[in-house]
Specification:
42% strand, 5-stranded antiparallel β-sheet, alpha+beta
C-alpha cells in the first residue's frame, strides 16, 4: 500500500517537472536598440530612443516578440532548431511610424541569418520595399543588437 502511494507521488512529481520544462524557454535573447540617428546627434539628442532588455521565454519554431516602446517598434523573431540555428527577424512599426516601416538592408521586410556567433546586428529603416532591381534609399531608424544564449 505504501509503495503505491510513493509510486503515485513520483509519477505526479515527474509530470510536474516535465510541465515546468515545457513552459521554460529554449533560448534567451538579450537585445539593445540604438535609435540614435545622425539628425539626433546633430541636435544633441543622443540616447533618446535607446532600449535594452531580455526575452527569456523564447521557444524553437515559435515566434518570440520584443516590444520597443520608445521606438514604437515590435521585433518578431523565430529560431529554427535544425543542424545549424537559423533566425528569421521581422520589424514592424506602430502607429507613430509611417506605413512604410520597417525594413532591413536592401529594403527587405524580413531577414534570415545563420547564427554563427552569439551576436547579430541589424540596421532598421523606414521607407519603402525594394521592387526587383529598384534602388531604394530608406531613412535609418537605428541599429538592433540581438544576443542569443542559453540554448537548450
Amino acid at each position: 500500500m505504501l509503495s503505491r502511494y510513493v509510486l503515485s507521488l513520483v509519477i505526479v512529481a515527474t509530470g510536474l517537472v516535465r510541465s515546468a520544462e515545457a513552459l521554460a524557454g529554449d533560448y534567451t535573447v538579450s537585445y539593445a536598440f540604438d535609435g540614435t540617428t545622425r539628425a539626433d546627434v546633430a541636435r544633441g539628442a543622443t540616447g533618446a530612443s535607446n532600449e535594452v532588455g531580455i526575452a527569456k521565454e523564447c521557444q524553437y519554431g515559435r515566434g518570440c516578440t520584443i516590444r520597443l516602446a520608445k521606438s514604437d517598434l515590435t521585433i518578431s523573431l523565430k529560431v529554427e532548431r535544425s543542424g545549424s540555428r537559423r533566425v528569421t527577424v521581422l520589424a514592424d512599426g506602430g502607429r507613430s511610424l509611417s506605413d512604410g516601416c520597417c525594413y532591413f538592408s536592401d529594403g527587405e521586410r524580413l531577414v534570415a541569418r545563420e547564427l554563427t556567433g552569439p551576436l547579430l546586428r541589424l540596421r532598421i529603416y523606414e521607407g519603402q520595399a525594394r521592387k526587383r532591381n529598384e534602388y531604394v534609399e530608406n531613412i535609418p531608424l537605428g541599429l538592433l543588437y540581438l544576443q542569443f544564449s542559453d540554448f537548450k
